[in-house]
Specification:
heterodimer, B: Ubiquitin-like (UB roll), Rossmann fold, Dimethylsulfoxide Reductase, domain 2, 7-stranded mixed beta sheet, 29% helix, binds iron/sulfur cluster, binds FE2/S2 (inorganic) cluster
């Protein structure tokens, strides 16, 4: 699977949840993390987590990045 | 078995709170006020002779055969046009009436060819019946007078013929075309003896506006309009009630049979989705079932470049199972998966997901709804709490404002469109939000009050601007919102939509829709009475598809248009069983009944029933499967009745994914485009050959019934069961009803559904359980399924697919009436006379700038790929927008669509692709190569089975 595509998809999801949150972004981060847990196959989550850990997800927006870090911490 | 006979009451039923009692032929009968005497008589079993009346049409009073005598009233009024009155005393048979009726019949018969014995309608002719009923014994005028015997037959329609010599000018056909279908294709031309029925301006049926719905044929009391199949084979001898296998309207039909041969499909009056109406597909286009290209034997091959080898069922199933096991052993348990089909029954989709979850041991199951209505599931679930339309179709009869967005009902959902048009003719108002001027914007006697021709990709902006007007002008139904919705979420939403950047003026710049039109449409929707939204794939198939569904739900909640007849949010589903396949747990993250796979109580329930432990993690969705295949972690796929190569976007990406897999098993009727990449082909059966259930767009659970034995030898559920058994997960169903019983046991919303129940009541709408034993026509009546309705903010995010210098136009795609989806079935019927090829619609200004005329070959290119097709120059599309259908594999419109998709569900963005159009000489190099490749991969070894 193309990691850039995963980053693109995570950013898309991030935009929706960012728009629901006018505070510090923690509601958005929870929303994104929950969405990824509910709808992404584990291998997709593993790949994007690995990407973030390896510092290779440069294009990832801040909120989805925080959400993926949250996922990483939980796994 | 016998023919299912329907009673013709002569005039439509009437609803009234006042009941009237009268005496007919000495017997008392009580009927609603406003009922005709003719209908009242038939209610008590008394047939009054009639010719121009039939209960699908308003009474007309032209034939004068239905005369009656009424005490205290002079003359002999027509019973079809005379309403009942209290204490009326009516006589239907007197010597005077007998005389009068004989006189009328004599006139008719003197101008009617008397070839009854060899006439196609022999045995099913109301003129014949009436001659018998009135006791006609002689025709005093003789047959030598002026007549119409030499009129020329019109055989232009492929399915029915028109023989004016037999016409009695009762105008039932004309009225059916107007009242039932709403096309107004027929007129009575001329006057008196010279009057005759004529399509359009003296055109042939095929050349006229006629859409071949068959309503006139059904209404005709004689052999004037008759199915060619009846002419060829004779009258049917038995019939079976079943459901159309094409679109999500779910029309009920009587399959009228001779032995195992279908003679005709006649829409069933008691069908609750269609009330006796049909479209050209369900009525006539079922010939694919016996088409010569249908594959009837299982086939296998080692490599996709090999020719196919016909083998026994055992060998094919055994080979498929051993390949899946080998792949799982090599690449891991999660390396295989399945795709269920919205064209198959709920029992069959349920079995495929069960096979994947219990047999493969993972959740890699998805369905073609991924590429159409998955955002509906997400959006309505988030806001209302369940993934389904809120109304029944009958609801439209109580609607005052119809808002159609991203749907083309007259082509996609024709029978429902006819109901909608009837309501609009009665005075309901119409708002259309669509880049194209679709037919319903202006059709005979219907005109949209507002058409918002937005740029593809700007739905969210326009809907949010409508919300802006509703909120800032104080048009919110605050009482409803306070009582039924989460007030805090509403307040946040209201503040958001009220921001100036969501104003009509701001959105005009993005969408191209004049601000004033947005304002007017918003006011009409919010204040025009009962308002209902109907939407289709023009809403869902966008990168913001789910957000658009949410925006629609927000509008309905803000204006209180939810929870009663006449209002609501209504997704028009593409395929016959999209609703059902989604209901049955076809998505990788949820079990039947939309319960998330991570929900432990639900999983435990299924684990107990299925005797396996289930994976709590979601599986791959269709687009993810192709990605994973290219990435090397997904290697085997079982595809039930779905042509992903032709129907999914970005064909190059799909085929790369398929080519990377080691075993693809396709179960289908024909060697479709996906089968070009398959290693095992399991021949499927048609809806005529098996029992089961489809669920239509209004959540209506309806039976399909087997009318002939499966020509391939097995029903589709049996094939899945065999495969599961070979994989080592045993299944022992002996009939689909047992699968239904299992579904009912495990799914609370279906707890009350069984074959016995459907036999008794015809159909039910889920939820059907203890709380709603007769089903649920309208949802969310007192509260939302999720409790409080939830408003969500709908920030417009422009798609990244934008027009630019290289690709300056926006392509959007759709379908037309006579063809269905990828056309695998309809292309194999005579429906091709209406649509031989996909064409590209382009605005005159854009065409002229490129030197393109109607009929020219053009090259359609995007960053994903290119194809060629012919152009039609039309102002139906706005400048800057082009449009095509995707019914033909040679066009492969999806070669140009991209892999952008909905943020929440990965539903592909079919509806927006930046393209360039240039003149071309014919099919592209890619099309030529593809055609060659397809031809090669369809080779079947001769006599291989021996
Ligand atoms: S087939 Fe339908 S559209 Fe055509 S003339 Fe008859 S009623 Fe009208
Ligand atoms: S074609 Fe049939 S329905 Fe139409 S006017 Fe003639 S007899 Fe009546
Ligand atoms: S295709 Fe749809 S509208 Fe046409 S007959 Fe079938 S179910 Fe009805
Ligand atoms: S049936 Fe009443 S006038 Fe023809």
């Amino acid at each position: 699977m193309s990691p850039d595509k995963l980053v693109y998809m995570a950013n898309q999801i991030g935009k929706f949840f960012a728009s629901q949150d006018h505070a510090d972004g923690s509601k958005a981060v929870d929303g994104i993390a929950t969405h990824l847990r509910k709808f992404w196959d584990p291998r997709m989550r593993r790949e994007i987590v690995a990407k973030v850990r390896a510092g290779e997800a440069g294009g990832l927006d801040p909120l989805p990045r925080r959400a993926i870090e949250q996922l990483a911490a939980g796994e | 078995m016998a023919l299912v006979e329907e009673i013709d009451y002569g005039t439509p039923s009437v609803h009234s709170d006042t009941m009237v009692t009268l005496t007919i032929d000495g017997e008392q009968v009580t009927v609603p006020a406003g009922t005709s005497i003719m209908r009242a008589a038939m209610e008590m079993g008394t047939k009054i002779p009639k010719l121009c009346a039939t209960d699908s049409l308003k009474s007309f009073g032209s034939c004068r055969l239905c005369l009656v005598e009424i005490d205290g009233r002079a003359g002999t009024p027509a019973s079809c046009t005379t309403p009942v009155g209290p204490n009326m005393v009516v006589r239907t048979q007197t010597p005077k009436l007998e005389q009068l009726r004989k006189g009328v019949m004599e006139l008719y018969i003197s101008d009617h060819p008397l070839d009854c014995l060899t006439c196609g309608a022999n045995g099913d002719c109301e003129l014949q019946d009436m001659a018998g009923a009135v006791g006609l014994r002689e025709v005093r005028y003789g047959y030598q007078g002026e007549n119409h015997f030499d009129s020329v037959k019109d055989e232009s329609n492929p399915y029915f013929s028109f023989d004016p010599a037999k016409c009695i000018v009762c105008s039932r056909c004309v009225r059916a075309c107007e009242e039932v279908q709403g096309t107004f294709a027929l007129t009575i031309d001329g006057r008196g003896f010279a009057s005759k029925v004529s399509p359009g301006m003296n055109e042939s049926f095929l050349g006229s506006e006629c859409v071949s719905c068959g309503a006139c044929v059904q209404a005709c009391p004689t052999a004037t309009l008759i199915e060619k199949n009846v002419l060829a084979h004779g009258q049917p001898e038995h019939s079976v009630v079943t459901t159309c296998a094409y679109c999500g309207v779910g029309c009920s039909f009587k399959a009228e049979m001779r032995g195992e041969e279908v003679i005709r499909m006649v829409p069933w009056k008691d069908g609750k989705a269609n009330h006796g109406h049909s479209c050209v597909k369900g009525r006539f286009a079922w010939g694919y079932a016996t088409h010569k290209e249908r594959i009837l034997s299982p086939m296998v091959r080692e490599k996709i470049t090999d020719p196919w080898r016909e083998v026994s069922w055992d060998e094919a199933i055994g080979f498929a199972a051993s390949e899946f096991k080998r792949i799982q052993a090599k690449y891991g348990k999660d390396s295989v998966g399945g795709i269920t089909s919205s064209r198959c029954t709920i029992e069959e989709t349920y079995l495929v997901q069960k096979l994947v979850r219990a047999g493969f041991g993972n959740n890699n199951v998805d369905t073609c709804a991924r590429v159409c209505h998955s955002p509906t599931g997400y959006g309505l679930n988030q806001t209302f709490g369940t993934s389904a339309g809120t109304q029944d179709f009958d609801s439209v009869e109580h609607t005052d404002v119809v808002l159609v967005i991203g749907a083309n009902p007259t082509d996609g959902h024709p029978v429902f469109a006819s109901r909608m048009k009837r309501r609009l003719r009665e005075g309901a108002k119409l708002i259309v939000i669509d880049p194209r001027r679709i037919d319903i914007v202006r059709t005979p006697h219907v005109e949209a009050t507002y058409h918002l021709p937005l740029l593809p990709g700007t739905n969210v902006a326009v809907l949010t601007a409508i919300a802006h007007v509703i909120v800032t002008e104080g048009l919110v139904n605050e009482a409803f919102v306070r009582e039924r919705c989460d007030w805090e979420a509403f307040s946040e939403w209201a503040a958001f939509v009220a921001e100036p950047r969501n104003s009509p003026e701001a959105v005009e710049k993005i969408s191209g829709v004049p601000a004033q039109t947005i304002v007017d449409a918003a006011r009409l929707y919010a204040t025009g009475g009962n308002a209902a939204i109907y939407y289709g794939l023009g809403v869902t198939e966008h990168s913001q598809g789910s957000t658009t569904v949410i925006a629609i739900a927000n509008l309905a909640m803000a204006t209180g248009n939810i929870g009663r007849p006449g209002v609501g949010v209504n997704p028009l589903r593409g395929q016959n069983n999209v609703q059902g396949s989604c209901d049955m747990g076809s998505f990788p993250h949820e079990l039947p009944g939309y319960r998330h796979i991570s929900d432990t109580p639900t999983r435990t329930l299924f684990e107990g029933a299925w005797g396996v432990s289930l994976d709590a993690e979601p599986g791959l969705r269709i687009p993810n499967m192709f990605d994973a295949a290219v990435g090397g972690s997904f290697m085997g796929l079982y595809v039930q009745g779905e042509d992903i190569v032709q129907s999914d976007p970005d064909t190059h990406h799909v085929t790369a994914g398929l080519a990377a897999m080691e075993c693809i098993v396709v179960q289908d009727l024909f060697l479709n485009e996906t089968a070009n990449y398959a290693h095992v082909f399991l021949p499927g059966s048609t809806f005529l050959e098996r029992d089961g259930i489809f669920i239509n767009a209004e959540r209506r659970v309806q039976r399909i019934r087997r009318v002939m034995s499966p020509r391939n030898g097995k029903a589709d559920w049996e094939i899945t069961q065999d495969l599961s058994n070979a994989l080592g997960y045993p299944m022992h169903y002996t009939h689909p009803s047992e699968i239904m019983d299992e579904i009912a046991r495990l799914t609370p919303t279906f707890a009350g559904v069984s074959y016995a129940k459907l036999e008794a009541v015809g159909s039910v709408q889920w939820p059907c359980n203890e709380a709603a034993p007769e089903g649920t026509p309208v949802m969310h009546i007192d509260h939302f399924v999720r409790g409080q309705g939830r408003f969500l903010i709908t920030e417009y995010q422009p798609t990244d697919e934008r027009s630019n210098r290289k690709f300056p136009l926006l392509l959007t795609t759709g379908r037309i009436l006579s063809q269905y989806n990828v056309g695998a079935q309809t292309r194999r019927t005579e429906n091709v006379v209406w649509h031989e090829e996909d064409q590209l619609e382009i605005h005159p200004a854009d065409a002229e700038a490129r030197g393109i005329r109607s009929g020219d070959w053009v090259r359609l290119a995007s960053r994903a790929g290119e194809t060629s097709l012919r152009a039609t120059v039309t102002d139906r599309v706005a400048p800057g927008v082009v449009y095509t259908t995707f019914h033909h594999p040679m066009t492969q419109a999806n070669v140009v669509t991209t892999d952008y998709s909905d943020w929440a569900t990965n539903c592909p963005e079919y509806k927006v692709t930046a393209v360039q159009i240039t003149p071309s000489n014919g099919p592209s190099e890619w099309q030529r190569r593809y055609s060659e490749h397809a031809g090669k991969s369809r080779r079947i070894l001769a006599d291989a089975a021996d």
